[in-house]
Each structure stands twice: as structure tokens, then as C-alpha cells.
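Researcher: Sequence recovery benchmark, item below. Answer with residues only.
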């Protein structure tokens, strides 16, 4: 019983930690705000390439569906989608981010988490080898990007 309890507690802690790491932290390790802005812009640039350019080409039908390539890119995206949020710690206003992010952190974090969840669904769909499922999940990720951009991106 004790063993089971500690296993459950460990699992709960791990879950809590990974969720906390995935969304915006209060503090960060960057020396300057400019570093934080450059970091998150670099992360979004990578996400934009893997999602918008590579997976997007398949979703739009510009590139033939290759299940293995799509799966690989979806797995890459699943890592990348965790990255930008560390660049939005307290006091890191700037770049293309609207200042109101910092007054609406709960909502911002919710939208960030929605993107993480949508990418997890995309990765699952990519494992099915089913183009229709991929396209549907791709649209879900796009919607999560748009929802946050509409509220919080300057342009
Ligand atoms: C992209 C990209 C975005 C989103 C958004 C989805 O590829 O660069 O900002 O998808 O356009 O609606």
C-alpha cells in the first residue's frame, strides 16, 4: 500500500512538474529581456517551420503524404511546442508580444497549454497513418495558434 501510494505521489509530482515547466514560469535564466525575446522568437520560428512549412505542405496537399515523415515532424513539433513559454516570464514584455499577456497570465497559460495538447493530438493522429486524421488534428493545432495570436500577438 505504501509502495502504491508513493508511486502515485511520484507520478502526480512528475505530472505537476512537467505541466509547470511547459507553461510560463515566474522567473527565468535570461540575462536580459532582449535575450528572452530572442529566445521565444527563435522557438516560434522553429515551430513555424515544422508546423507551417513542413506539415502544412502535406495538409495543403502541396507535398504527398508520407506517413513516416509526418510522424517524425509531429514528434519534433511535440518537443518544440514546449519551448517558447520559458521566454514569457515576469517582466519580459517586448517584441511582438502584447503587454496584456502579463496581465492575463492565467488565460495565456491556458492557451499555451491548449497548443501543447493540440500538438499531442496531432502526434497521436500522425501515428495512425491516416491522412484525414492528420489533417483534422493539423487544423486543431492551427486553431490553437490562431486563438493565442488573435489575443496576444502584435502583428
Ligand atoms: C502557422 C503559423 C501561424 C499559425 C497560424 C494558424 O504556420 O506561422 O502563426 O500557423 O497561422 O492559424
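Model:
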Amino acid at each position: 500500500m505504501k509502495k502504491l501510494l508513493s508511486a502515485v505521489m511520484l507520478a502526480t509530482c512528475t505530472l505537476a512538474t512537467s505541466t509547470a515547466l511547459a507553461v510560463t514560469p515566474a522567473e527565468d535564466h535570461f540575462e536580459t529581456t532582449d535575450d528572452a525575446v530572442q529566445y521565444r522568437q527563435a522557438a516560434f520560428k522553429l515551430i513555424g517551420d515544422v508546423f507551417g512549412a513542413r506539415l502544412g505542405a502535406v495538409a495543403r496537399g502541396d507535398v504527398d503524404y508520407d506517413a513516416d515523415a509526418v510522424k517524425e515532424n509531429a514528434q519534433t513539433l511535440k518537443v518544440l511546442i514546449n519551448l517558447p513559454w520559458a521566454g514569457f516570464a515576469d517582466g519580459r514584455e517586448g517584441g511582438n508580444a502584447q503587454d496584456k499577456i502579463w496581465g492575463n497570465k492565467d488565460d495565456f497559460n491556458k492557451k499555451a497549454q491548449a497548443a501543447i495538447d493540440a500538438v499531442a493530438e496531432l502526434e497521436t493522429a500522425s501515428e495512425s497513418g491516416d491522412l484525414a486524421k492528420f489533417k483534422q488534428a493539423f487544423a486543431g493545432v492551427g486553431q490553437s495558434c490562431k486563438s493565442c495570436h488573435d489575443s496576444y500577438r502584435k502583428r
